[in-house]
Protein backbone atom coordinates (compact mmCIF):
# COMPACT_ATOMS: atom_id res chain seq x y z
CA UNK A 1 0.00 0.00 0.00
CA UNK A 2 1.45 3.31 -1.07
CA UNK A 3 2.02 5.99 1.56
CA UNK A 4 0.03 9.14 0.80
CA UNK A 5 2.01 12.36 1.10
CA UNK A 6 1.01 14.84 3.80
CA UNK A 7 0.08 18.17 2.30
CA UNK A 8 0.37 21.24 4.56
CA UNK A 9 -1.37 24.38 3.36
CA UNK A 10 -0.01 27.69 4.66
CA UNK A 11 -2.30 30.67 4.23
CA UNK A 12 -0.55 34.03 4.34
CA UNK A 13 -2.71 36.93 5.44
CA UNK A 14 -2.07 40.18 3.62
CA UNK A 15 -0.77 42.92 5.92
CA UNK A 16 -2.84 46.08 6.21
CA UNK A 17 -1.29 49.20 4.74
CA UNK A 18 0.23 51.89 6.99
CA UNK A 19 -2.43 54.42 8.02
CA UNK A 20 0.00 57.39 8.09
CA UNK A 21 0.40 60.25 10.62
CA UNK A 22 -1.65 63.01 9.02
CA UNK A 23 -3.89 63.19 12.07
CA UNK A 24 -0.86 63.86 14.24
CA UNK A 25 0.06 66.89 12.15
CA UNK A 26 -3.49 68.22 12.35
CA UNK A 27 -3.55 67.67 16.11
CA UNK A 28 -0.19 69.44 16.52
CA UNK A 29 -1.51 72.42 14.54
CA UNK A 30 -4.60 72.53 16.76
CA UNK A 31 -2.54 72.45 19.96
CA UNK A 32 -0.24 75.19 18.62
CA UNK A 33 -3.20 77.38 17.71
CA UNK A 34 -4.74 76.91 21.16
CA UNK A 35 -1.45 77.77 22.84
CA UNK A 36 -1.16 80.95 20.75
CA UNK A 37 -4.76 81.86 21.59
CA UNK A 38 -4.29 81.49 25.34
CA UNK A 39 -0.99 83.36 25.15
CA UNK A 40 -2.78 86.22 23.38
CA UNK A 41 -5.51 86.24 26.04
CA UNK A 42 -2.86 86.38 28.76
CA UNK A 43 -1.05 89.28 27.09
CA UNK A 44 -4.30 91.22 26.68
CA UNK A 45 -5.15 90.73 30.34
CA UNK A 46 -1.70 92.05 31.33
CA UNK A 47 -1.93 95.16 29.10
CA UNK A 48 -3.06 98.50 30.53
CA UNK A 49 -5.69 100.63 28.84
CA UNK A 50 -3.01 103.18 27.90
CA UNK A 51 -0.94 100.49 26.19
CA UNK A 52 -3.99 99.21 24.31
CA UNK A 53 -4.69 102.71 23.00
CA UNK A 54 -1.06 103.06 21.97
CA UNK A 55 -1.17 99.76 20.09
CA UNK A 56 -4.41 100.75 18.37
CA UNK A 57 -2.89 104.05 17.26
CA UNK A 58 0.26 102.30 16.08
CA UNK A 59 -1.69 99.98 13.77
CA UNK A 60 -4.18 102.64 12.65
CA UNK A 61 -4.11 103.28 8.88
CA UNK A 62 -1.91 106.20 7.94
CA UNK A 63 -1.84 108.31 4.81
CA UNK A 64 0.22 106.87 1.98
CA UNK A 65 2.92 108.66 0.06
CA UNK A 66 4.54 107.84 -3.29
CA UNK A 67 7.90 108.96 -1.90
CA UNK A 68 10.47 106.23 -1.36
CA UNK A 69 11.62 107.66 1.96
CA UNK A 70 8.56 106.50 3.87
CA UNK A 71 7.56 110.09 4.52
CA UNK A 72 3.88 109.32 4.09
CA UNK A 73 3.70 107.57 7.46
CA UNK A 74 2.41 108.96 10.70
CA UNK A 75 5.64 110.88 11.38
CA UNK A 76 5.84 112.25 7.81
CA UNK A 77 9.45 111.18 7.40
CA UNK A 78 10.62 112.64 10.72
CA UNK A 79 12.08 110.93 13.76
CA UNK A 80 13.06 111.94 17.26
CA UNK A 81 16.75 111.30 17.88
CA UNK A 82 18.50 110.78 21.22
CA UNK A 83 19.31 114.47 21.46
CA UNK A 84 15.63 115.39 21.32
CA UNK A 85 15.50 116.84 17.80
CA UNK A 86 13.01 116.10 15.05
CA UNK A 87 14.93 115.25 11.89
CA UNK A 88 13.61 114.75 8.37
CA UNK A 89 14.61 111.83 6.14
CA UNK A 90 15.79 112.60 2.58
CA UNK A 91 13.07 112.56 -0.07
CA UNK A 92 12.99 111.44 -3.65
CA UNK A 93 12.77 114.62 -5.70
CA UNK A 94 10.92 112.90 -8.53
CA UNK A 95 8.25 111.09 -6.52
CA UNK A 96 7.66 113.41 -3.54
CA UNK A 97 5.01 116.03 -4.17
CA UNK A 98 5.60 119.70 -3.45
CA UNK A 99 2.94 119.71 -0.75
CA UNK A 100 4.60 116.82 1.08
CA UNK A 101 7.97 118.56 0.92
CA UNK A 102 6.47 121.74 2.36
CA UNK A 103 4.90 119.69 5.16
CA UNK A 104 8.20 118.03 5.98
CA UNK A 105 9.96 121.37 6.11
CA UNK A 106 7.29 122.86 8.36
CA UNK A 107 7.86 120.28 11.12
CA UNK A 108 11.64 120.07 10.93
CA UNK A 109 13.82 122.31 13.09
CA UNK A 110 15.14 124.17 10.06
CA UNK A 111 18.62 124.99 8.91
CA UNK A 112 20.86 127.64 10.36
CA UNK A 113 20.14 129.94 7.42
CA UNK A 114 16.38 129.69 8.07
CA UNK A 115 16.88 130.59 11.70
CA UNK A 116 19.10 133.51 10.71
CA UNK A 117 16.23 134.95 8.70
CA UNK A 118 13.71 134.63 11.54
CA UNK A 119 15.76 135.41 14.63
CA UNK A 120 18.19 138.18 15.47
CA UNK A 121 21.79 137.06 15.76
CA UNK A 122 21.95 137.81 19.48
CA UNK A 123 18.87 135.72 20.23
CA UNK A 124 20.16 132.91 18.04
CA UNK A 125 23.41 132.67 19.95
CA UNK A 126 21.64 132.80 23.30
CA UNK A 127 19.09 130.20 22.22
CA UNK A 128 21.75 127.80 20.95
CA UNK A 129 23.47 128.10 24.32
CA UNK A 130 20.16 127.47 26.11
CA UNK A 131 19.50 124.36 24.00
CA UNK A 132 22.93 122.97 24.91
CA UNK A 133 22.39 123.69 28.61
CA UNK A 134 18.96 122.05 28.66
CA UNK A 135 20.19 118.93 26.88
CA UNK A 136 23.14 118.70 29.22
CA UNK A 137 20.79 118.86 32.22
CA UNK A 138 18.66 116.03 30.82
CA UNK A 139 21.61 113.84 29.88
CA UNK A 140 22.48 113.57 33.57
CA UNK A 141 19.28 111.58 34.11
CA UNK A 142 19.95 107.82 34.34
CA UNK A 143 16.96 106.98 32.11
CA UNK A 144 17.44 109.80 29.59
CA UNK A 145 18.02 107.37 26.70
CA UNK A 146 14.59 105.88 27.35
CA UNK A 147 12.90 109.26 27.81
CA UNK A 148 14.57 110.99 24.86
CA UNK A 149 11.76 109.97 22.46
CA UNK A 150 9.32 111.99 24.58
CA UNK A 151 11.43 115.16 24.80
CA UNK A 152 11.93 117.55 21.88
CA UNK A 153 14.19 120.58 22.31
CA UNK A 154 14.45 122.93 19.34
CA UNK A 155 14.98 126.63 18.62
CA UNK A 156 12.06 128.49 17.07
CA UNK A 157 11.35 132.06 16.04
CA UNK A 158 9.79 132.68 19.48
CA UNK A 159 12.76 131.28 21.39
CA UNK A 160 13.45 127.70 22.48
CA UNK A 161 10.77 125.02 22.71
CA UNK A 162 11.00 122.16 25.19
CA UNK A 163 8.13 119.82 24.32
CA UNK A 164 6.98 116.86 26.39
CA UNK A 165 5.51 114.67 23.67
CA UNK A 166 3.38 111.54 23.92
CA UNK A 167 4.46 108.54 21.86
CA UNK A 168 2.58 105.36 21.00
CA UNK A 169 2.34 103.31 24.17
CA UNK A 170 4.23 105.88 26.26
CA UNK A 171 2.45 109.02 27.46
CA UNK A 172 3.66 111.80 29.72
CA UNK A 173 0.27 112.28 31.41
CA UNK A 174 -2.32 109.78 32.54
CA UNK A 175 -5.02 109.17 29.98
CA UNK A 176 -7.68 111.89 30.06
CA UNK A 177 -6.11 113.40 33.18
CA UNK A 178 -4.01 116.39 34.17
CA UNK A 179 -1.90 114.19 36.46
CA UNK A 180 1.62 113.65 35.08
CA UNK A 181 3.48 110.39 35.37
CA UNK A 182 6.46 110.22 37.69
CA UNK A 183 8.83 110.23 34.70
CA UNK A 184 7.32 113.55 33.59
CA UNK A 185 7.87 115.01 37.03
CA UNK A 186 11.51 113.86 37.00
CA UNK A 187 12.11 115.49 33.61
CA UNK A 188 10.68 118.82 34.77
CA UNK A 189 12.65 118.73 38.02
CA UNK A 190 15.82 118.06 36.02
CA UNK A 191 15.10 121.06 33.78
CA UNK A 192 14.14 123.44 36.60
CA UNK A 193 17.67 124.50 37.72
CA UNK A 194 18.59 125.47 34.15
CA UNK A 195 15.28 127.27 33.57
CA UNK A 196 15.76 129.13 36.85
CA UNK A 197 19.25 130.25 35.81
CA UNK A 198 18.36 131.41 32.28
CA UNK A 199 16.94 134.94 31.85
CA UNK A 200 14.13 133.89 29.48
CA UNK A 201 10.52 134.17 30.53
CA UNK A 202 8.50 130.99 30.11
CA UNK A 203 5.32 130.37 28.14
CA UNK A 204 3.67 126.97 28.76
CA UNK A 205 1.15 125.67 26.23
CA UNK A 206 -0.85 122.45 26.33
CA UNK A 207 -1.99 120.61 23.20
CA UNK A 208 -3.92 117.41 22.57
CA UNK A 209 -4.84 115.16 19.66
CA UNK A 210 -8.18 115.41 17.92
CA UNK A 211 -10.83 112.82 18.69
CA UNK A 212 -11.25 110.28 15.91
CA UNK A 213 -14.47 110.53 13.87
CA UNK A 214 -17.32 108.79 15.63
CA UNK A 215 -15.67 108.90 19.05
CA UNK A 216 -16.23 111.45 21.77
CA UNK A 217 -13.51 112.76 24.05
CA UNK A 218 -14.07 111.81 27.69
CA UNK A 219 -12.61 115.13 28.86
CA UNK A 220 -13.23 118.58 27.42
CA UNK A 221 -9.99 119.27 25.47
CA UNK A 222 -9.70 122.93 26.46
CA UNK A 223 -9.84 122.09 30.15
CA UNK A 224 -7.51 119.12 29.66
CA UNK A 225 -4.76 121.05 27.89
CA UNK A 226 -5.01 124.06 30.20
CA UNK A 227 -4.89 121.77 33.23
CA UNK A 228 -1.80 119.97 31.96
CA UNK A 229 -0.05 123.27 31.27
CA UNK A 230 -0.89 124.41 34.81
CA UNK A 231 0.41 121.12 36.22
CA UNK A 232 3.75 121.67 34.44
CA UNK A 233 3.94 125.20 35.82
CA UNK A 234 3.26 123.99 39.36
CA UNK A 235 5.99 121.35 39.16
CA UNK A 236 8.52 123.88 37.86
CA UNK A 237 7.54 126.41 40.52
CA UNK A 238 7.83 123.73 43.18
CA UNK A 239 11.31 122.92 41.88
CA UNK A 240 12.47 126.50 42.36
CA UNK A 241 11.54 128.42 39.20
CA UNK A 242 10.36 131.89 40.38
CA UNK A 243 6.79 132.93 39.67
CA UNK A 244 8.07 136.04 37.87
CA UNK A 245 9.68 133.81 35.24
CA UNK A 246 6.31 132.65 33.90
CA UNK A 247 4.81 134.72 31.11
CA UNK A 248 1.69 132.68 30.24
CA UNK A 249 0.02 129.32 30.78
CA UNK A 250 -2.34 128.38 27.95
CA UNK A 251 -4.41 125.42 26.75
CA UNK A 252 -4.88 125.16 22.97
CA UNK A 253 -7.01 121.96 22.87
CA UNK A 254 -6.58 120.32 19.44
CA UNK A 255 -6.36 123.57 17.45
CA UNK A 256 -2.62 123.40 16.72
CA UNK A 257 -1.59 119.80 15.94
CA UNK A 258 2.09 119.04 15.44
CA UNK A 259 1.08 116.84 12.49
CA UNK A 260 -1.81 118.54 10.68
CA UNK A 261 -2.12 115.71 8.14
CA UNK A 262 -2.89 113.25 10.95
CA UNK A 263 -4.26 115.12 13.98
CA UNK A 264 -5.29 111.89 15.75
CA UNK A 265 -1.88 110.38 16.50
CA UNK A 266 -0.20 110.42 19.89
CA UNK A 267 2.62 112.96 19.20
CA UNK A 268 -0.02 115.69 18.86
CA UNK A 269 -0.54 115.36 22.62
CA UNK A 270 2.18 117.53 24.11
CA UNK A 271 3.01 120.35 26.50
CA UNK A 272 5.44 122.94 25.15
CA UNK A 273 7.62 125.06 27.43
CA UNK A 274 8.84 128.03 25.38
CA UNK A 275 11.82 130.08 26.54
CA UNK A 276 10.81 133.40 25.02
CA UNK A 277 13.30 135.63 23.27
CA UNK A 278 14.13 138.85 25.06
CA UNK A 279 12.06 141.78 23.83
CA UNK A 280 14.08 144.50 22.11
CA UNK A 281 14.85 147.47 24.30
CA UNK A 282 12.71 150.54 23.69
CA UNK A 283 14.83 153.61 22.85
CA UNK A 284 14.48 156.18 25.65
CA UNK A 285 13.66 159.01 23.20
CA UNK A 286 11.07 157.03 21.23
CA UNK A 287 8.07 159.00 22.55
CA UNK A 288 9.71 162.40 22.80
From TrEMBL:
Principal subcellular localisation of the protein: membrane
One protein family per Pfam: MotB_plug
Comp. bias intervals (Polar residues): 97-110
Keywords for the protein's UniProt record, in alphabetical order: Cell membrane, Membrane, Transmembrane, Transmembrane helix
Bilayer topology annotation: Single-pass membrane protein
InterPro entries, A to Z: Bact_OuterMem_StrucFunc, MotB-like_N_dom, OmpA-like, OmpA-like_sf
Positions of transmembrane segments: 21-44
Residues covered by region (Disordered): 75-131
Signal peptide stretch: none
Compartments, as annotated in UniProt: Cell membrane
Gene3D superfamilies: OmpA-like domain (3.30.1330.60)
Matches recorded under SUPFAM superfamilies: OmpA-like
Residue ranges of domain OmpA-like in the record: 160-279
One annotated Gene Ontology cellular component of this protein: plasma membrane
Entry's family note: Belongs to the MotB family.
PANTHER family: LIPOPROTEIN YIAD-RELATED (PTHR30329:SF21), STATOR ELEMENT OF FLAGELLAR MOTOR COMPLEX (PTHR30329)
Protein's recorded name: Chemotaxis protein MotB
Amino acid sequence: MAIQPIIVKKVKKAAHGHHGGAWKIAYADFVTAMMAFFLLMWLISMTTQEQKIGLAEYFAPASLSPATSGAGGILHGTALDTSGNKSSAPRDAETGSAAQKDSARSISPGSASDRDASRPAANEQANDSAVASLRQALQKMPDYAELSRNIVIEPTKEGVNVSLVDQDGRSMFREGSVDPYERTRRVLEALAPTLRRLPNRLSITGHTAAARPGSASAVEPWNLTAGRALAVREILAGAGVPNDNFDSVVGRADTNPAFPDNPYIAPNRRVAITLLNASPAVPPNLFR
